[in-house]
């Protein structure tokens, strides 16, 4: 295999509390800030600059996903450069502050890598979510985590959205991904989920240091889940209330292949509704709390194998 | 054994949405209202009057526990008869409406039985929570549910609080209990939890009909868990932030005996904190989402066996 080159990652941002009730990232960022204070008192050298960011402090304080609107949908170029007024939602104002701090998005001044920490109520294990299936930095990090954390189910999710449409905080960096871990109820900290996230972030930073030091990052195959479809809950046409829950045979079975005619929902009166698609697909974000209001009961993905080339830091390409 | 008598239960209330983000009770009450509409169109006779109540409609609409204050703490005699003004919290106003509808609390006009539906993020199975360990109506219903639902873990929890201090909606009825089911994240419906609650309510109403028809309800022994102690999370003295999560070895182990020196918390830096009590006790409400703000990480109970006498509807005592 040919050796390819990728540029130095000198500035990394680790963000928590982009959603103010997703507790692992909030407490992890606070803990890392505390630890840094101690380390700085010991005057240790830093091989890479790591910014620690609490993204939505007002939502964190109120333990809500957001105050006015979902911050993690505010990072499109259009929203970041739209008009401002006295009635501009808090999160739109905050998204510009974050874009100044970590970006500007799409500019040479943007940080090299954004890792944005999230939780889900779905049984998804640890997922990296990215807008690209050929961002080798994200994919090498994913592979490193898979090797270092054999006891944690790890998946790479690809949202096939153009750079113009990309809307989340991690899109502000030159490279970026969301680290999404579940299941955990929003507003709750589960120790095992916190510990997995802490390990994931540490392994990610270790890989960045390893790469920056000029080491070769081995290539290899990984599975990439590309989102292709979403389903809403069945709803009452008048009240818009949901009329069914995710079927007990589907609940918690994220990333287990869903076949045509498999149970999808169970109505509140007890009836089973089935998957009517023609193609077997992989469900994920099954019954995620925050997606009721977005009209998403589950997402479906196609899986494909991606070959990561061997890379080394340098000026080659 | 002697046969004892208990009065007819002619008016029963089933309440959901006392907490606006505990979804099973909300969708169950809505579903029962729909079914009733159909039944009424069929002009069926009703042996017992069942009121179906959505307790906190504004909180339900916003999918929040409450708007201004926790409705399920507003039913003390003091709060129900306190002064009112323009700034009275919504839930205090609503508690009086409910007291008029279902009470007045402590009066002969109060409904005979209130069953208030709740969810918890804790792994508690189905619990009946009551202020009395000798309310035979509640205990007979509990025993009936235990027999009818052998696959669901069922417990009876006793909060040893005087009638004067009792604060929850179910205290408005002559008899009353909360039906608490978990684990389920707040804001989420899990089909299995919904189905268990639906079965629990149906079996409860079946028992009431059976009892009202003059049948003998057999006595027997049941375990009662009486709450004796609560622990808060360890917190930072300045920020009041929690500094530890429930220990992974304790998480999800509700009603498994906790012994002195067993792990209680794991700090965010990785340290284990242990249970320093002298007496082994039964933990429950472990890591309940809504109790972070109340300063409760878990509750502890003593278990004892209670003998339920044989009862029959009548005027005996």
Outline the structure in words.
Two copies of one chain form a homodimer. With 317 residues, chain A is of the alpha/beta class. Chain A has two domains: 230 residues, 3-Layer(aba) Sandwich (Aminopeptidase), CATH 3.40.630; 74 residues, N-terminal domain of TfIIb (Single Sheet). The first copy, chain A, has six helices and 15 strands. In chain A, the strands form three sheets. The first copy, chain A, has a nine-stranded mixed sheet. A three-stranded mixed sheet of chain A has the order 1-15-8, covered by helices on one side. The first copy, chain A, has a three-stranded antiparallel sheet with strand order 10-11-12, with no helix packed on it. In chain A, helix 1 links the parallel strand 2 and strand 3. In chain A, helix 1 packs across helix 6 and helix 5 crosses helix 6. Chain A is globular and about 60 Å long.
């Amino acid at each position: 295999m040919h050796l390819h080159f990728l540029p130095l990652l000198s500035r990394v941002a680790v963000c928590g509390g982009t959603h103010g009730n997703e507790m692992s990232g909030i407490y992890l960022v606070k803990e890392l800030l505390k630890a840094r204070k101690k380390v700085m008192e010991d005057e240790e050298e830093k091989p890479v600059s790591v910014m620690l960011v609490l993204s939505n402090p007002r939502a964190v304080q109120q333990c809500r996903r957001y105050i006015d609107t979902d911050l993690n949908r505010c990072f499109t170029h259009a929203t970041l450069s739209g008009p401002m007024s006295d009635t501009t939602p808090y999160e739109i104002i905050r998204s510009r502050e974050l874009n100044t701090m970590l970006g500007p998005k799409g500019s040479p001044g943007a940080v090299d890598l954004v890792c944005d920490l999230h939780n889900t109520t779905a049984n998804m294990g640890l997922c990296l979510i990215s807008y690209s299936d050929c961002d080798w930095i994200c994919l090498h990090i994913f592979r490193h985590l898979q090797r270092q954390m054999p006891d944690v189910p790890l998946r790479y999710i690809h949202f096939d959205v153009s750079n113009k449409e990309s809307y989340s905080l991690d899109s502000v960096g030159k490279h970026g991904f969301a680290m999404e871990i579940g299941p955990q109820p929003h507003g709750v900290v589960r120790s095992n989920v916190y510990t997995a996230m802490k390990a994931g972030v540490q392994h990610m930073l270790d890989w960045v240091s390893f790469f920056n030091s000029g080491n070769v990052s081995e290539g290899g195959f990984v599975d990439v889940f590309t989102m292709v479809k979403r389903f809403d809950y069945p709803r009452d046409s008048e009240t818009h209330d949901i009329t069914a829950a995710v079927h007990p045979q589907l609940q918690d079975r994220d990333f287990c292949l869903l076949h045509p005619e498999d149970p999808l929902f169970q109505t509140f009166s007890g009836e089973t509704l089935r998957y009517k698609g023609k193609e077997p697909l992989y469900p994920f974000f099954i019954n995620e709390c925050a997606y009721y209001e977005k009209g998403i009961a589950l997402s479906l993905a196609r899986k494909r194998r991606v070959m990561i080339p061997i890379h080394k830091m340098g000026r080659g390409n």
